[in-house]
Amino acid sequence: MNKAILTTLFSFTFVVAGIPPAIEVLSKLKVGQPIRLLGPSTHLDKAGTPTMGGIVLILAISISCLISSKGADSSLLFAVLVTAVFGLIGFLDDYVKIVQKSAIPNSRGVTASSLGMTAPHKLVLQVAVALALAVFAAYHPDIGKAIAIPFLNIHFDLGPLFIPFTIIVVVAVVNAVNFTDGLDGLASGVTLIVFMFFLLYALSDGKPSMGTFGASVIGACMGFLVYNFNPAKIIMGDTGSMALGGAVSAISILTRTELFILIAGMLYAIELLSVAIQVSYFKISGGKRVFKMAPIHHHFEILGWKETRIVIVFWIFTAVCVLISMLSININF
Q1: SS3 for 26?
Q2: Is 40's pLDDT higher than 90?
Q3: How big is the CA angle at 9 (ends 90 and 211), to the nearest 5 degrees?
Q4: I want to staple 157 with a disulfide (CB 3.0 to 4.6 A). Which of 74, 146, 168, 285 is the partner?
Q5: What DSSP character marks residue 106?
Q6: What are 256-267's pLDDT values in tens digits?
Q7: Residue whose C-alpha is closest to residue 191's, from 219, 212, 151
Q8: Looking at residues 68-96, what average pLDDT do you find?
Q9: Cα 19 vs. chain centroid, distance in angstroms?
Q10: Which SS3 state, helix, strand or coil, does residue 166 take?
C-alpha cells in the first residue's frame, strides 16, 4: 500500500508541476481547443483553451510506473504501453482538428473546428491496439482467458471468444471515455473515482503491478483536476481521453475485471449508449431525437443545468457505482 501511495503522490506532483509550463508552451504554439459548432453554444468560448494536456498525463503515468517498476511483471509495462499508444491515436485526432480549423471566430477571436480523424481510421487503429492487448492477456501465464463474474465470486473461461470479446470491450471503453470528456473536470474526475475500484481490487487480489499502474493514473487525474476543473485552464483533448480510456481498458483486462466496467464505470456506458441511441433513433425516425443533445451530459446542459452541477452529480453517481462494484466482489486486505 505504501508503494501505491508514493506512486500516487509522485504522479500527482508531476502533473501539478508540469501543467503550467505545458500551458505556456501550448499557448505559444496556439494549440487551442477546437469546438464543434453543433455543440452547446456556451462551449464556443472554450475555444482557444490550451489542449492536448493529456501529454502531461501520459508522461506522469509512464514515469511514475517506471520509477515504481522494481519487482513488477510485464503487465505493468504493457498497461503503460497501451495507455501511451491510445494517447498517440488521440494526439493524431487532436492534431487533425487543430490544423483544419474553420473560419468562424468566437467572442475571444479564436476559431471553431473540424471533426478530426475519420471514424474508420480511428477504429482501425483502436482495433489493432485492442487485439495486441487481447493476445497479451490471453497468453499471459497469470491472466489467461477467464474473466471475473460480479456477485458470484467465480471466474468464467471464455476460451476462443476471449479475444473478440476483449477487442469489443476495449474499443467500447476507449470511445465511451472519449465521449465522457465533454465538460471541465468530468472525464478526469470520473476516471479517478473508477480507478479507486481497480486499485483496491488489484491490491487485494495480489496484483501489485496493476496496483502501481492504478495508483499512477489516480495521481495523474488528481493533478490534472487542479487545472481542469471549471473554468478549465487546460483541456486534455482526445490525447488525454483516449489515453485514459486505454488505461481503464488495460487494467480491467489485465485484472480480469472486464465486466466490472459496467458497474464501476456505468457512467461511461451511459454516455456511450446515449450517443448510440441518439444516432440510431435520428436515422430511424427521420430526424427526431431522444435527447436534447448527446452525449447525455449535453442533454442536461440544454435543460439548464450548470456545468459544475452536472460534473459533481456525475462524480457522485460514479462513486455510488464504485461502492456497488466493491460489494459485487470479495475485496479483502
Answers
A1: helix
A2: no
A3: 70
A4: 146
A5: -
A6: 999 999 999 999
A7: 219
A8: 93
A9: 18
A10: helix
146 to 131, 160, 257, 333: CA distances (angstroms): 17, 11, 10, 23
pLDDT given for residue 118 in this prediction = 83
Residue 179 grid cell: 465521449
Place of cell 474553420: 102
Environment class of 41 (CB within 10 Å of its CB; exposed 0-12, middle 13-18, buried 19+): exposed
What length does the chain have? 333
Q: Is the pLDDT of residue 111 over 60?
A: no
In angstroms, how far apart are the furthest CA atoms of the chain?
A: 58
Instruction: For cell 490525447, name the residue.
Output: 239
pTM of the model: 0.91
Hey, is 5 helix, strand or coil?
A: helix
Which amino acid is present at 168? I
Question: Among positive and negative, which fits the CA dihedral 318, 313, 182, 119?
Answer: positive
User: Sign (positive/negative) of CA torsion 275, 279, 280, 281?
Assistant: positive
End-to-end Cα spacing for the chain: 10
Q: Is 169 exposed, middle or buried (0-12, 13-18, 19+ CB in 10 A)?
A: buried
Q: How far is CA 63 from CA 125, 133, 196, 240, 330, in A?
A: 25, 21, 20, 16, 31
pLDDT at 36: 58
φ/ψ of residue 325, rounded to 5: -65, -35
Q: Which of 142, 128, 7 is nearest to 62 (CA)?
A: 7
Task: Please give the pLDDT value at position 31.
Answer: 79
